User: Fold these one by one.
Assistant:
Number 1:
Amino acid sequence: MAVCLLRYLVRHSSKPRSLVVSGASSHGTMSTYSTVTTLSAVKTQRMQHMAVLRSGVGLAERVLNPPLQSINGNHGSGNIQSSSDNNNKDTDAAFELAIKQLNSLQSNDAAIRNSMKNARVDTKADTIKYLERSGLPLETVERLSFIHVAGTKGKGSTCALTESLLRHQGVRTGFFSSPHILFTNERIRIDGQLLAKDKFTEQFWKVYSRLWDRREHDHDMPAYFKFLTILGFHVFVAENVDVVVLEVGIGGEHDCTNIVRNVRTVGITSLGLEHTELLGCTLPEIAWQKAGIIKTGSHVFTHVTQSECLEVIRQRAKENSATLYEVPPTEDYFRSEAYAPIWQTFSNLIRLNGSLAIQLAEDWLSQSGKHQHTPNEVKMDPQLLDGLISTHWPGRCQLVEWHGMRLHLDGAHTLESMEVCTEWFEKSVRDSVNPKILIFNRTGNSGFEPLLKLLHRTCAFDMVCFVPNLATSTPNAPSQVMVRFSPEMQLDRARIIASAWSDLCATEQQKDVGQVYNTLIDAFTAIWQRFPQATDHDGQLEVLVTGSIHLLGAAISALDLIEDPKSRTDK
């Protein structure tokens, strides 16, 4: 109802689109705009993407698919699949076969470490080589238009918001992101929808076969992410999208996505220490890598706050004759009498990334000649608001009710993102008397101790589960296979994390309720046995799953495999 009302107002309003027209300054005085009638409707919109319980729908679909579909009414891509299509056994089997072949391009941990010790491969030149070998010239890719986004925290969320904003303006969108939660085709979206499995499979074999047939030696194939980047470009060209919202994989300067030279709108989100073995051990070094996506003459928008990082970004922008804009706070768009009451209803998704996304979308629309916009102009209207609140970005501060549990799903894996996650969870459970449970894992080699400290002081957890990213003891579904980390390596890592948690509890003189489980099914079985009232729906458990996007996927898969939680407690 809320979204329908907003759309009606957009279609029938005779008022100008802009609430406020200001210059480059973000501190203009906001004028009142008579859209107060939308407030009661907007307040009913679930700002944290609470999934609506629907009979017969599995947890995976509730997580991945928004409860209110926002479909671009101006375009019909033929990409959207019905539930019956998603459950088609032949389609699923063909898709999984393609993913198994794709997984052969993953590298194990030893190979990755060895490559890091050797001289850096020219990733961009390598990507272009394989792109053109696959039958797609770079010049053809560059006939598309791009918005390129890098950063440590919030780059995926910013991209998702930007894509939604553009789609609600009637733009046909492509969206490339990483990693995925459950299915590899989450990484490539058309008009906000996951690329259909049959289309993914068709495009995969076309690209893979061409590259395989044109090898110059046995190992002459692109690595996993490089292949997916190339595949994404093929899809976006075939789907003839108006714009591609392109999320950087790692860093920026040397990232596979950084081969396109015609980017006019660039975003850089919050920065922090991450992938230090690849990007550098200081914030200025990381800022230099992220700013590597700045192209000649582009408009660069950022909400980076650290002065040492901003100085690096300014310098790189100057070197490329680009213009840097520090975006205003998102709250500035909601200071008018009409919109101020809505601010308190927003999730962190919008609060932290809304302004940057608005500026990126509006700048692209302006540079494409679709309407006029001054960089850092602060304005709000029902159409923009609809684009913001309709954004669905699963696995980030997402709350889903399932079998007596309030599942808090957040893939936070950096200190900055975990700060957001723990603040969100603490607010969510502040008035709850229900048992509170943490499920945590952290893959990779970066430190997890700061994350544990944040989690430890968030609340007094009644149960803490450390578990590998494994749904069951049998192999994960193809889309969730991690060649780099074997099950044994992951279990060893979980034990190390559990030991660090025990040390933290001892230091704080608090009871250690942590335990290691081999799989997510083992963990959830133990949870239901400990708190059987949840399976009878007589009570609810507050469950936080965090530390890794891959952990979320394994947890969702495990819960979908457990059809009757109560039967597990009766054993």
Number 2:
Amino acid sequence: MINIRACSALLVLLGFGAASSVDVCTTWMVAPSSCPEFTGATIKGKEDRSSAEILSGINFAGSVSFEWKASNATIALPNATRFTLSLSGDVAPPKGGDVKIAEAAESADIPVMFTSSGGYKTAIFIITDSTGACPTVQHTFKDARTEALPYVFDKGVVLIPFIIVFIIVPLTQNVFFGLGFAAWLCRTIIARDPWIGFLDLFGRALNEEIKGWLGEIMIFMFLLGGVVGGCVRSGGIQGLGEMASAYIKDSFLAMLVAYFLGWAVFCDDYANTVIVGSVVRAVTDKMHLSREKLSFIVDCTSSPIAGLMPLSTWIAYELTLIRDASASIGYTHETEYILFIASIGKRFYAWFMLFFVFWNCALCVDWGPMYVAEKRARAASDGSGVVNTGDKSIQDWEEDQPIRMKKNIPARWLNAFIPFVCFIGTFLPFLFYAGVQKVTMPVATCEPGCYGDNEITWESPTKDILANANNFAALRWAAGVTLIVQIVLYAVQYDKTRGSRMKGCLLSPAETIEAQLNGSKLYLEGIVALLLAFTYATALRDLGIATFFADALGETLTPTTLPTVTFILCSLFALSTGTSWGTMGVFFPIAFVLAQTVTKEPINSDAFTSELETTLAAVLGGSIWGDHCSPVSDTTILSAMSSQVPLWDHAKTQLPYAFFAGVVSILLGYLPAGAGAPGPLMIIIGFFLIPVFHVGLSKIPNFGGPIEVYCPEVGECIGEGPWGAMNSIKRSFKKSSNSQEAAP
């Protein structure tokens, strides 16, 4: 028998998000009958991905590469249908089928799925001959270090800290304990030691979060709290509420003002959240609107609007993710900006949530926990029901607040209006300034539509300037200017009857600074909640929850179900981690690879482009949906802070509404769009069906119903539900007509 040395086979297994390399060297012997034979193999591998060292049974995409050579000549395997390569163990074809070896092939690149088990792999290769002329050959590649396999957890362990938050927080009604405990549990699992997990959490993890962009958010929130504190202490907030009540006559109009103001501040979700909540709260309190409803309106308009707008601080991040994900699958048919614009008509959750908030305000009906909160707010004739004070009276609750209006001074609305206008008016110019001043390092290549690769000047397009801007710097600059304006504004309002020298000021500079410091305390609890939420989210990501979700549902995908599954996966991740941006960063690469895997269309074609638009819209929509449902979300916390409502009260009242909008998005959006339905048509249908579903749920006894429209001018309600809204509109038109007739 003449033996011919065949080849070396290279097995490259790429673990998600990390570098993995496994060198498989084998020698084939080909007998005169052209029958292949294994003579030996070794495996050397190192798995650097942290979650692969923690969890077992997680599948990662990879490939098997083979080359056949005999000296300098190529060995041609006889027939493509004759020899079949089967893989098992930790390596298997993605669809679970066998691989046909092509005739006269010099090499083969076979996609496989690799099951990680702490970084140690076993692969079983079986070659069979369909004619039976050659015997079946089997060889097992086994890592010699398998006996030293470290202790790993079942992959389902990632669900424990995820679920425990949603058990502890409702039971204790304390977000801080729930987040802190879950973060410690994640670190304990990763470290495999509760004491090391404790040391890691308090010795490193919290500090690392503050070093990042959370630190920028915290500084801004302290500054904004100072602005609010000055407005409260000077009597501006109380005066603004009294002035606004002359124009905004009832709770129905107050809700609409909050909703449309959310549309007006479209450029940034954080700015939207804190500005709208802080400005409108004095008005909604006057109208006996619950702060839970205000925080819901604020929260559920901020991210959807910022995500939809092609001119916002979101666009740079989204375009970068789309560009990188497109490059990873070799997609070049359209630029990332074209994909972004085209996906707007398929972002069903953002549109449907905005529609739902509008109809909720317009119809004046509620259900679930929000119905209870709104009934409580209307029931108290003195307005004390706008916030849940627990066992305390409203007087005791107000006494506990860190800042109150100074006694014996006039309540002038301009003392709040001017600072808020200053903040809003300087934010946008500062945002453009930040976009021009920010220095970005150029990248090696730049396809049309990418941003941050070239120098940005004042002559650059608006979208490029905004895409390059540091929105946190702009927010801090605007807050800093406003704090200085407040010191001057309150000092120049001098009345000698109040005393001599500084005592005659409405607020002396020292009093204003003290009020600003006390105002920062308004946001202290929210800042601590943000810190714990970010720490918990990072720990959960390190534990590998994204891979778990993708692995759990990835095998069931078709082009029709891909958008829906992607939407659900992203919402689960955002729900668990509380970050829409983090969810986008994790799932954009995964979603694009899944789209490439399940599609039946050529990658660079119009048909695949349409599928890709729906998929990326599902990533963006699911990120916001989970963010709205999560009690640990940054915008959830900021909305509660700006509306001055307990975080748990905001989370529990918003969750059913966000869940409703998400389910409608699946049924009327992502499922039909996955089947080929036009996105804009489904959005129009949703606009008209959402109020039908909403009113239907409010008809359930003891679950929902119409809400009274309160008018402080008459000191009572002017109607309830849609009839109350109609009465509000009639009163407004009547007063407008009377004013015109009275005018000379």
Number 3:
Amino acid sequence: MALHSALRLFPSSPHLSPLLFSSHLRLSKTPTSFPFNTYRSSPLPIQNQRSTFMPAAPALPDSSDNPSSADDNFNHSGVIISACLVGVSTGIAVVLFNNGVHEIRDFFWDGIPSRGASWLRQEPLDSVWVRVISVPACGGLIVSVLNAARNAVSEASYSAKGALGSVLKVLAAIVTLGTGNSLGPEGPSVEIGSSIAKEIHSLLDKNPQTKLSLLAAGSAAGISSGFNAAVAGCFFAVESVLWPSSPADSSVSLTNTTSTVILSAVIASVISEVGLGSQPAFRVPEYDFRSYGELPLYLLLGILCGLVSLTFSKLTSYLLGVVDNLNKDVGIPKPVFPVVGGLTVGVIALAYPEILYWGFENVDILLESRPFVKGLPGDLLFQLVAVKIIATSMCRAFGLVGGYYAPSLFIGAATGMAYGKFISFAIAHSDPAIHLSILEVASPQAYGLVGMAATLAGVCQVPLTAVLLLFELTQDYRIVLPLLGAVGLSSWVTSGQMKRKDVKGTKALEEGDAQPEESDNTTSVSSNEAAAYFNNLCEVESSLCVDDSSIRTNDLEKRIFVSEAMRTRFVTVMMSTLLTEVVTLMVAEKQSCAIIVDSNNRLIGLLTLADIHEFSKSAKDKSLDSKVLLVSEICSLDGAKCKVPWTATPTMDIHSAEMIMNKHGLNQVPVILEHVKDCRGQPIGLLDRECISLTYRAVATRESLDFDTVKSIVK
């Protein structure tokens, strides 16, 4: 469609500037598809259609503009009561969960865990191999049945997939851990707390502003009751729930949220002490700090733990992809994988029984904190690091249920102990001419404790929680400086490679079938490349992503497309347009960007308000007349400003589009036609993050309302 004007607006606005009525401007309109269609739509521009102007209705005051209104609507007493209920319920549930794990362990292992992995290592192989192999495999078989039941429940009932699905997942975790498979209980404890928080919110306090607070309270209660460490639980809630949440979810004041988190964590910790005892999760050896001269050694340990954590996370992501391909391409049924995972763990445990989960007894062996138990040599400790990484990654990828906190602590303890023994050996046998013998170093246990925190921070990206957890358990202020240095470097090594993104988003991207076509000014990205970019924390440890406020289910992902979420109201300009006119249009239409097109209405680039603002500063320095500056001058000065790294198409899945936007760091992308003759490359919409978030929430809310209506009719 040829353009006879310099500017176009899609569609018109009642607040247009008089500039738009000049002889050089024209208004046209694209049809807006209803944002909740359940079919694919490919809206096309309607040519030569004039807009109709109607007077704007007077703006009503918005209560969200008043910061105090959110606090006024916040029911203080109600949310405090809800937080207390979350703490009590989570504490009781975690106690029952741990007792269930102990009962399953005693039933299957017949007292072997109390004797320890060292005893099992010394036993003749022909007397123990049947039990060591069959118990984890039997656990995998039961878990596969529970997983199948959970999937059937989620597909059959919209309402039951929350509560009943959580119960089945907890049962699967009890069986997984009770049979010794290489995972941990703290992740399920966090998910127990968050599930309880969601149920209490839906039953007692349906105010959407309090949901995030209760989720944080549930997560804090899960960690504090799992580790018997209330302070670490509070910081975990901040790092895993509150900080990653979107600004739209943060309408509740920080003071109110903090009070709910602290109350819930303290109550859950007290109940955990009553039900499980007041002893910490593992026996903490006395921390030994000799001199500040060994701080560089702790920094090197932090880098080492960061590399180990990165290997751990990447192997998990890789094996998840392998298992997914085996299921889809080869056709291996999903129920087979947990059995194979348990069988593999049993075979590995014949040579390395320390990898089995028997509580934190094996961590005590690594730290040499159990009396009358001989410590492990350094070479065996390094082997255990590699073997534990492999076994845990396979358990997670093969569908067994559990967390990564306990395995991370095990791996960190083995890494730190091996590192400490190596340092001690190197100094003791160093050349006297180098005078390393004058350097006083702490015991290997000290490096083991610091290694636990550094690895936990690297794997789960919770550095403050890791520091506070070890400080709370050791109750020794001298450990703080080594902890901060090692944890900080470990988190730095892994932070650039790991993102807290939704696993379902990655899967949706991998399954997406619509990709934009490459052009001279835009580039397309393959789905595999974009999926590989994210080493998702959520797929490593699902308890780190308990905030499901966007309700991104697979069903929604398959039915929401870019054409349903994009803005059909956008500004287009040409290279010959004055920058002052561009800014006037942006202000009139409340848009932060303008799409640059050529005379054939084909996409050339994208110009943002920030680009114009930055260019205006340099223009003033050069004494240029800003009233005569053109769009082409910005683009010619810096081509990267106008270039569009990627464009979306109407038929693309919006979650796939969001994943690629995350890869390129884009806040908005043009939507172009691709398969329409004579219209290829023409912009028909603009997709930004606000559109995506709003569409997810609106569709989820609509489906929830539809479900409630159907339920009332049935009753």
